[in-house]
Write a structure and sequence with these properties.
The complex is a heterotrimer. By secondary structure, chain A is an alpha+beta fold. Helix content of chain A is about 30%, strand content about 20%. In chain A, strands 9-10-7-17-14-15-16 form a 7-stranded mixed β-sheet, sandwiched between helices. By secondary structure, chain B is mainly α. In chain B, the strands form 2 sheets. A two-stranded antiparallel sheet of chain B has the order 1-2. Chain B has a two-stranded antiparallel sheet with strand order 3-4. In chain B, a hairpin with a 2-residue loop joins strand 3 and strand 4. Chain C is α+β, with helices and mostly antiparallel strands. Chain C has 5 helices and 5 strands. The longest helix of chain C has 28 residues. Chain C starts with a strand and ends with a helix. Classes of the chains: A alpha+beta, B mainly alpha, C alpha+beta. Chains in contact: A-B, A-C, B-C. Bound molecules: FE2/S2 (inorganic) cluster (FES) (2 copies). One FE2/S2 (inorganic) cluster binds next to loops of chain C.
Chain lengths: ~750, ~450, ~160
């Protein structure tokens, strides 16, 4: 069985001439976390945590190039973008570079793949490392060929002098030449000479995905692998009082019923046997509900606001002023779920007192820490390897499934155990995007410009990621449970519930307060864009309300309050491509809306213009078309950016029009897609256009989450335009719209 | 209710006749018929004639009290007006939907306030006359597929509210399609005879001894909601059989189960279950609304709680519904569910049921759909609802919560569907097997368009 | 033992006849294309063709499959020699996480097997049972249209030749 869990040495040695010591960067970063204080001098991107060049790039004697990233492919196309960056700076064709993603045994620790940070952190590190490796190799080649560096050209991993003599990368890498610390600055290729970066290169992962190749952890099939299913409690925190495993143990294929406190699962030889045994086992289980009942969904926002909060003023500029034109509004957003199409899955093998887990979680290093604690092994006896999962959109059940698999593998040592959640488990147990409330008051001067702005946001935490073992469902369920970690504030400038709560507009007097509510009635964590979805929805809805009060066109109104040239360019681009000015008399029930934000106020800039049609009799909103403009800095893969924004627009349309988690006083009731409907094909807009503004030479800006907030607000603004009714509570279901527009 | 006047209908008949190229005998028969028709027609003309009511200028929204429009909206939802008068996916109330009847296809009319093609020029009096006695503004008779035999008792206030609601809809210019009816049904004056026989007041009478809820429910159920239009069997003339009220009828190829004591539901419905079913579209003891009942329930979502409760109260009383306590003691499924906990391998229909249906319909606690043993469709005398649901599934409106069952038309052969339904019925253990199920599945499948 | 015809080959499967095809495909036959998404017939991640019809393999027990022909995405082509739909999905870069994509391709295949000309509305209605959470819908629709166009073009060539004769 050991062959299934190759040791780090086996993996790293790999027969190359260049034996790399990965560990130094990794372990230090592990102790400090990815956002640790930077060493001096500051290194760019994730080089801070793993400064040795060979932590990132390895070149074998035969010239084979391997690039390492601590980030994971989540369906955002990061593998392709990172390969493009490495290929460009190294001068090696993409097909000849192997990319290794998050694996605690081999790659640098880059924390979580989240917050649209893979490009600014990992791509920046790889770009610098690649440029520096290239310079080192060029210098050595010049020496070897006795020519001046200027006379060398690189063609696909071979350095060729103008006299025709040449030497390959592989011939130059002896003596650990790359085992050197990175420099804070690099000599980059001139962006105008790029041949790979900035090109819409086809994604490397797609061919396998359309032909049935092994693409996901769900597809991992190890020799001797068995299947498990977990029986989950019917409500949060219910304890298992009784269970009769006897009748289940004799079912066909059942290998073992595992019970540890309230953690209950069954392992069987075949997957469907495990499913059937899980159903049978569930019938024999008796649970005792936790004392705490769930709040009344109908009054959830009042309930949350009344909970104790920790308040932080995150912006305090000037003095809150008043005028004859003061406007206020309150906005609400319900609990919403990630809702991956494939439920959480993990495979684990416990052998020779060490544990290997294959997981689609977002952070292999943090997961390792949680799992080590959970199963009682030192972290260096636990290896976590990322494999892709179904699109994740934040912290879903992936880590929990890793915990389930780890406990089950420990119960059946020597056999790989695969566990996958059922649909109802994913729907009822994943940590949701938190319900939120915002309130805003603004004063306008006589010209309609904003002179004062007061904004409050109430929210739970937006991250309960592992973490310690107590952040995993399994860790909380076992007989001696691990303590749940206290919910944490994600500080500005990133922000959690207050992400994007600070308006980007030029407003002389402004105060923004984040009311952080520690008590969490429903399980919540990071969902794509975190608080930015709600804050941008609120701010950008309100900007339209103010524009209306001021009698100014909404796009004009935004431009009047925007100083930043790049922001103005994005707004203008979206408006122009939408043909915003050509306001023809729209047919009854049609309306258009606009919104803009810069994600986190420092990442990608995105503006969205949409057209909607509202069916008066039912209140059903149809998104007719959407036009988005985006500035992600230097665009590494423009098609990848388009894909992300297109997807972001459609996903956010689904959140905004249809989605809310429902619950009664005992349990979550939105148990599957029939009770938590999401957008299907017939609700897809006629057209979605994305226009990318490339900024060659500018830093890479994360894009994955940029479209969420602007889309939501643009839709609400368009509904207001179409019907005259301003709806401030999400989602804009047909019942809610109908109630607002009346008969 | 259909727009075309006699001339149009006669034209369409002539065209069809020309296409048919009948033989000599047929010509003679037809000539005889025409002769009879002419005589009879003259006689009828006197009885059947109704005056045209004067056209009006379409009233503006301001002419109506907002409260009346609002009430009218709820009443229109109870009356299910939009279902017949809207083509799926089309403009609301603009008509055009084909309504198949045993006598031919009738196309619903445009009831938006468009002056040219809708009811924009109808006075309130004209509207009320149409609602209660099935006569269009210009005096032509409307077909009883428009259920004026129920609407006859709609009171003045509600008629006014409905008028206020309809006259404030978005006008849509869309002409009605000519009906596709053979002679003599395309000859409208014949409807006067039908009305003389079957159009009567008094489908519902207030009963002082009953609760206000019951009386309100009765007024709605017998009147606007026209439940009997589907749930009461019809005679050869297409009229509801008063002797078999709520004994079960049919609609659009679906069985409309009996609401009286002959209800096939294994567990008698309580008022609360009916309320849950009509209000939220779910009742885990009986099943989910499907077929033509699905839009009825979707519409009730727009109706105030009190009216839905009143309807539930009255419908429960039709079958002498038990109190909740009695219902709890009612016989439930005969056999304990065995499928998913089975320790032995199943085969044939039992295996198909276990793998395809058992996950949701097992009857085990926590299962997401109705226990198959309690399903009304499985225990009904006629298998067609069960067949249709298995073939087509149940789909909630886009973006809405609601029961969702996938279609199995492509997954199983006719025989497999027949076998699995027989198995399910046997498992419920209440009724003998359906006869000739395989050919019924085949017939229904062939009747459905494949998409 | 149940005999099923998978992608043109007869395979023997020894599993409980109640086992849904999805588990047989993934575990016994080691085909990764069909995915578990819900097991309830709500998402289409498991879509395969049975006798040419797009079906949810998560709700199709082995017992119902004796002698019937099953096609999975593996049966449409390989990375080296992709079928028209697979090629179109690559050309349109129609995937984000890609988890839904094999099911999307199979549902679209059922449509293309019937007709190469369809309206946009027909296409969307046809695809309605399948969910994508990443929001790849626009690209999926484009890819299906592209494949249909390619297939039409390929068919037009011999027709034109015939006409020339
Ligand atoms: S997995 Fe079969 S439809 Fe969802
Ligand atoms: S591409 Fe991720 S679910 Fe469709």
């Amino acid at each position: 069985m050991t062959t299934l869990a190759p040791s780090r040495r086996q993996v790293v040695a790999g027969g190359g001439a260049l034996i790399v010591s990965i560990s130094l960067g990794a372990t230090r970063a592990l102790a400090q976390g990815p956002q640790a204080a930077p060493p001096t001098p500051p290194l760019p991107g994730s080089l801070k945590g793993a400064p040795m060049l060979d932590s990132w790039i390895r070149i074998d004697a035969d010239g084979a190039v391997t690039v390492f990233t601590g980030k994971a492919e989540l369906g955002q196309g990061i593998k392709t973008a990172l390969l493009q960056v490495a290929s460009e700076e190294l001068g090696v064709a993409m097909p000849r570079i192997k990319l290794v993603t998050a694996d605690t045994a081999t790659t640098p620790d880059e924390g979580y793949t989240s917050g649209s940070q893979s490009m600014p952190n990992s791509a920046t590190a790889i770009r610098n490392a690649a440029a520096q490796v290239r310079e080192i190799l060029l210098a050595r080649a010049a020496e070897r060929l006795s020519v001046n560096v200027e006379r060398l050209k690189i063609r696909d991993g071979i350095m060729i002098a103008d006299d025709g003599s040449s030497v390959g990368f592989g011939e130059l890498v002896g003596n650990e030449v790359l085992h050197v610390a990175a420099q804070p600055t690099s000599r980059f290729k001139e962006p105008s000479t790029y041949t790979v970066v900035g090109k819409p290169i086809a994604r490397v992962d797609i061919p396998a995905k359309v032909t049935g190749g092994v693409a996901y952890v769900h597809d991992l099939r190890l020799p001797g692998m068995v299947h498990a299913r977990v029986v989950r409690p019917p409500s949060y925190g219910a304890r298992l009082a009784e269970v009769d495993p006897g009748s289940v143990e004799t079912m066909p294929g059942v290998l073992k019923v595992v019970r540890d406190g309230s953690f209950l699962a069954v392992i069987a030889g075949r997957e469907y046997q495990a499913v059937q045994a899980m159903w049978a086992l569930a019938q024999t289980a008796r649970w005792i509900d936790a004392k705490q009942e769930l709040p009344d969904q109908a009054a959830i926002y009042d309930y949350l606001k009344k909970l104790p909060s920790r308040d932080t003023t995150i912006l305090d500029r000037g003095m809150i002023a008043s005028s004859s034109s003061v406007h206020s509004a309150t906005y609400h957003r319900p609990y919403q779920m990630h809702g991956a199409i494939g439920p959480a899955c993990a495979v684990a093998l416990y052998a020779d007192d060490s544990l290997t887990v294959w997981s689609h979680g977002q952070g292999m290093f943090p997961l390792r820490r949680a799992l080590a604690e959970l199963v009682g092994l030192p972290p260096d006896k636990v290896r976590c390897i990322h494999m892709e999962g179904s699109g994740c959109y934040g912290h879903n059940g992936a880590d929990d499934a890793g915990g389930d698999a780890a406990l089950l593998a420990r119960a059946l040592p020597g056999r790989p155990v695969r566990v996958q959640w059922m649909r109802e488990q994913e729907h009822t147990l994943e940590p949701y995007g938190p319900a939120m409330t915002t309130g805003v008051t603004a004063a306008l001067d006589r010209g309609g410009n904003i002179i004062s702005w007061q904004y409050d946001v109430w929210s739970n935490t937006h991250s309960t990621r592992p973490g310690p073992a107590g952040s995993l469902l399994a860790g909380l369920a076992v007989a001696s449970p691990f303590p749940a970690p206290p919910p944490a504030v994600i500080p500005q400038p990133e922000g959690g519930g207050d992400r994007n709560a600070i308006p980007i507009y030029a407003i002389p007097n402004a105060q923004v307060v984040h009311h952080f509510i520690p008590d969490m009635p429903l399980r919540v964590s990071a969902m794509r864009a975190l608080g930015a979805y709600m804050n941008v929805f609120s701010i950008e809805s309100f900007m339209d309300e103010l524009a209306k009060a001021a009698g100014v066109d909404p796009v004009e109104y935004r431009l009047n309050h925007l100083d930043d040239a790049r922001a103005r360019a994005v707004v203008r681009m979206a408006a122009e491509k939408f043909d915003w000015r050509a306001r023809s008399a729209s047919p009854r029930g049609r309306g258009r809306g606009f919104a803009f934000a810069r994600y986190k106020n420092f990442a990608a800039l995105c503006a969205a213009a949409v057209e909607v049609e509202v069916e008066h009799e039912t209140g059903a909103v149809r998104l007719v078309r959407a036009v988005a403009a985006v500035d992600s800095g230097q665009a590494v893969n423009p098609d990848g950016i388009k894909n992300q924004i297109e997807g972001g627009v459609i996903q956010a349309a689904s959140w905004t029009l249809f989605e809310q988690v429902t619950f009664d006083r005992r349990q979550i009731t939105s148990r599957d897609w029939s009770l938590y409907p999401i957008l299907r094909f017939q609700a897809v807009p006629e057209r979605v256009e994305v226009h990318v503004i490339d900024r060659p030479g500018q830093p890479f800006l994360g894009t994955g989450e940029a479209a969420a907030g602007p889309t939501a607000a643009a839709i609400a603004n368009a509904v207001a335009d179409a019907t005259g009714a301003r709806i401030r509570e999400l989602p804009l279901t047909r019942q809610r719209v109908k109630a607002a527009i009346g008969v | 209710m259909s727009k075309p006047d006699l001339a149009v209908s006669d034209n369409s008949r002539r065209n069809r006749g020309a296409d048919r190229k009948p033989g000599r005998w047929a010509w003679r028969g037809l000539a005889a018929l025409v002769a009879i028709a002419v005589v009879a027609g003259a006689a009828f003309a006197a009885i059947a004639w109704r005056p045209e009511l004067a056209p009006v200028v379409t009233p503006a929204r301001a002419a109506f009290a907002p409260q009346d429009i609002e009430t009218g909206a709820a009443l229109a939802a109870i009356g299910n007006c939009d279902v017949c008068h809207t083509v799926p996916g089309g403009k609301f109330y603009a008509g055009g939907r084909a309504l198949p009847t045993p006598f031919g296809t009738i196309y619903a009319t445009n009831i938006t306030p468009d002056p040219a093609t809708g009811i924009g020029r109808w006075s309130e009096e004209a509207f009320r006359r149409a609602l209660r006695s099935g006569v269009a503004r210009d005096g032509h008779h409307l077909y009883p597929v428009f259920p004026y035999d129920h609407f006859i008792d709609v009171n003045d206030g509600d008629s006014h509210a409905l008028y206020a609601f309809l006259m404030t809809r978005t006008p849509v210019e869309q002409s009605a399609l000519p009906n596709d009816l053979p002679f003599p049904f395309n000859w409208r004056p014949v409807l006067a005879l039908w009305k003389a026989l079957y159009l009567h007041h008094g489908g519902f009478k207030t009963e002082a001894a009953q609760s206000a809820d019951w009386n309100r429910g009765g007024y709605l159920v017998e009147g606007l909601a026209h439940c009997g239009a589907c749930h009461t069997p019809r005679n050869a003339q297409g009229a509801e059989r008063r002797d078999r009220k709520f004994a079960g009828g049919s609609s659009e190829g679906w069985d409309a189960p009996a609401l009286n004591q002959t209800s096939p539901a294994p567990v008698p419905w309580t008022r609360e279950q009916l309320f849950a079913y009509l209000r939220r579209g779910v009742d885990d003891v009986h099943g989910a609304p499907a077929g033509p009942m699905a839009p009825v329930v979707h519409n009730l979502a727009r109706v105030p709680d009190a009216d839905v409760r009143a309807i539930a109260t009255y419908v429960a009383s039709i079958a002498d519904a038990p109190s909740p306590a009695a219902a709890a003691n009612a016989p439930t499924r005969p056999a304990a569910p065995t499928t998913v906990t089975s320790t032995t391998e199943l085969s044939g229909a039992a295996a198909i049921f276990a793998g395809a249906c058992g996950g949701c319909h097992s009857g085990l606690p926590g299962a997401s759909a109705v226990d198959i043993a309690r399903s009304t469709a499985i225990n009904a005398p006629d298998p067609r609802n069960a067949i249709r649901v298995v073939l087509d599934g149940i789909t909630p409106p886009p973006g809405e919560r609601g029961p969702l069952m996938p279609p199995f038309a492509g997954a199983f052969t006719d025989q497999q569907i027949a076998d699995v339904l027989s198995y399910a019925r046997a498992r419920a253990g209440r009724h003998p097997a359906w006869n000739d199920l395989g050919s019924q599945v085949k017939a229904i499948r062939q009747g459905q368009s494949k998409t | 033992m149940t005999q099923i015809n998978i992608n043109g080959r007869t395979r023997e499967v020894d599993a409980d006849p109640a086992t849904p095809l999805l588990y047989v495909l993934r575990n016994d036959l080691e085909l990764n294309g069909a995915k578990f998404g819900c097991g309830l017939g709500q998402c289409g991640a498991c879509t395969v063709l049975v006798d040419g019809e797009a079906v949810f393999s998560c709700l199709l027990p082995l017992a119902a499959l004796d002698g019937r022909a099953v096609t999975t995405v593996e049966g449409l082509g390989t990375p080296e020699e992709p079928g028209p739909l697979q090629r179109a999905f690559v050309e349109e870069q129609a995937a984000q996480c890609g988890y839904c994509i094999a099911g999307m391709i199979m549902r679209a295949q059922a449509l293309l097997a019937r007709t190469r000309t369809f309206s946009e509305q027909d296409l969307r209605e046809h695809m309605q049972p399948n969910l994508c959470r990443c929001g790849t819908h626009m690209r999926i629709l484009r890819a299906v249209r592209r494949a249909a166009a390619a297939m039409r073009a390929a068919e037009a060539v011999p027709l034109r030749k015939e006409a020339a004769r």
